[in-house]
Specification:
Mean pLDDT: 96
Bound molecules: flavin-adenine dinucleotide
Largest sheet: 5 strands, antiparallel
Structural class: alpha+beta
CATH class of the largest domain: Alpha Beta
Distance between the termini: 44 Å
Oligomer: single chain
CATH architecture of the largest domain: 2-Layer Sandwich
C-alpha cells in the first residue's frame, strides 16, 4: 500500500488503557524513508508530532492530540550469530524480539518476557525487570533526527541510559532500530532452559500484574533524596509501599478507572472509562499519599499531550 497520512484517527484502540481521543494526523511508516516523509509532513503543516509505539506506557487526553502521531511499523529482525548480535527495528514488539532471539539460539533478553511494548518504547524508557535493564544488552542503534530527517548510527553511550530514562526523552531523535549483544546458546539443554525461563517469567508476571487495560506502573518509585524520613531505619523508595499503606487497592472507583486488586501501583480501566476518570483517581492517590507521608508521587507513564495534568 502506498504511504498515506490519515486524518482524525481514534487513539483509544491504540493504547493499553483504551482511553483518549483522536489524532488530527496519523502515519504508520514501514521504513526509514516513509518515516522521513512523516517528519517532513509535520514540518510543512507546522504541527507537533509524537511517536507512539504499542501505547503500553501512555495516557492520552480525552481531547486527543492536535498534531501528527507517528506509529513505526518497521518490523525487521536479524541476527549475526557469530557475533552474538540481534538487530530489531523499532516496531517489533518486545516479545517478538525475545522469541526470535531464542529461536536463533541467543539468550539474555528473556528476562523482559511478557513486558508489553515495542523496541522503540523499550529503548526510550530503558525497560527493566528486577536487576535487568535493557541498556545492559544494547550496543548500538540507528536514529532519525526530528529537525532534518538525517539518519545516524549511534553507540550505547549516546543514549545516556539511566533508570527509566535515555537521551530519546529530548524527542530530538527517534529510534529506527537497535542492536543487542546476546549470549549464544551452546546446546539443546541450554536452549530449553532459556525458553523455560521465558515461560516462567511470563507465568510469574501474569500472577503479579494485570495484563490488560493498564499502563503498568502508574507512578515511578521515589528517588532517595525525595524521601526525607526513614521507616524502621530504612529509606523506602518503593511507591507501592506507600500506596499499599493508604489502602489504594480498596479506593472507590473513579468512573471506569480503579486500582488493580493485583498491584497498588497499577490503575486499570473498564469499558467506557475515560482518561479523565484515570486522572481523577490518580489525583486522589497522590493527595492521600501526600497527606499521610508529606511526599508526592510522580507519574511514570507518559502523558499526551505533555501538559495533560491531574491537578
Ligand atoms: C501490564 C504492563 C506491565 C509492564 N511492565 C513493565 C516492566 O516490568 N518493566 C518496564 O520497564 N516497563 C513495564 N511496562 C511499561 C511498558 O511496557 C514499557 O514502557 C514499554 O517500553 C512501552 O513501549 P511502547 O511501545 O508501548 O511505548 P509507548 O507507550 O507507545 O510510548 C512510550 C514512550 O516511548 C516513546 N517511543 C515509542 N517509540 C519510540 C521510538 N521509535 N523512538 C523514540 N521514542 C519512542 C514514546 O514517544 C513515548 O514517549 C509495563 C506496561 C504494562 C501495560
Amino acid at each position: 500500500m502506498p504511504f498515506a497520512i490519515e486524518e482524525n484517527v481514534s487513539l483509544a484502540d491504540k493504547n493499553w488503557f483504551r482511553t483518549g481521543g483522536a489524532a488530527r494526523y496519523y502515519a504508520a511508516p514501514k521504513n526509514a524513508s516513509e518515516f522521513a516523509m512523516a517528519l517532513n509532513f509535520a514540518q510543512e503543516k507546522k504541527v507537533d508530532l509524537f511517536l507512539l509505539g504499542e501505547g503500553a506506557n501512555i495516557l492520552i487526553s480525552d481531547e486527543g492530540f492536535p498534531g501528527l502521531i507517528i506509529h513505526p511499523t518497521m518490523t525487521k529482525l536479524t541476527t549475526d550469530h557469530d557475533n552474538g548480535e540481534l538487530t530489531a527495528e523499532a516496531g517489533v514488539t518486545i516479545d517478538e524480539m525475545i522469541n526470535f532471539s531464542l529461536e536463533h539460539h541467543l539468550c539474555g533478553l528473556e528476562e523482559f518476557a511478557g513486558i508489553p511494548g515495542s523496541v522503540g518504547g523499550a529503548v526510550y524508557i530503558n525497560i527493566h525487570y528486577f536487576e535487568f535493564l535493557l541498556s545492559q544488552f544494547l550496543t548500538r542503534a540507528t536514529v532519525i533526527k526530528k529537525s532534518d530527517a538525517s539518519i545516524h548510527t549511534v553507540s550505547k553511550e549516546w543514549f545516556h541510559f539511566g533508570y527509566d530514562t535515555s537521551s530519546l526523552h529530548t524527542r530530538d531523535y527517534f529510534l529506527l532500530d537497535a542492536t543487542f549483544k546476546l549470549t549464544p546458546l551452546p546446546n539443546a539443554v541450554a536452549i530449553a532452559y532459556a525458553k523455560g525461563r521465558r515461560d516462567e517469567i511470563v507465568r510469574h508476571r501474569a500472577r503479579r500484574y494485570p495484563t490488560e487495560r493498564t499502563c503498568g506502573s502508574f507512578f515511578r518509585n521515589f528517588h532517595p533524596h525525595e524521601v526525607p524520613f526513614q521507616i524502621n531505619g530504612k529509606t523506602i523508595v518503593s511507591i507501592a509501599y506507600y500506596l499499599d499503606a493508604i489502602g489504594a487497592k480498596s479506593f472507590p472507583t473513579s468512573g471506569g478507572a480503579s486500582v488493580s486488586s493485583k498491584h497498588a501501583n497499577m490503575i486499570v480501566t473498564k469499558e467506557g472509562a475515560t482518561t479523565n476518570d484515570i486522572l481523577t483517581l490518580a489525583q486522589k492517590l497522590k493527595q492521600t499519599v501526600h497527606a499521610r507521608f508529606g511526599i508526592t508521587p510522580q507519574c511514570e507513564c507518559v502523558r499526551l499531550p505533555h501538559n495533560l495534568t491531574d491537578s
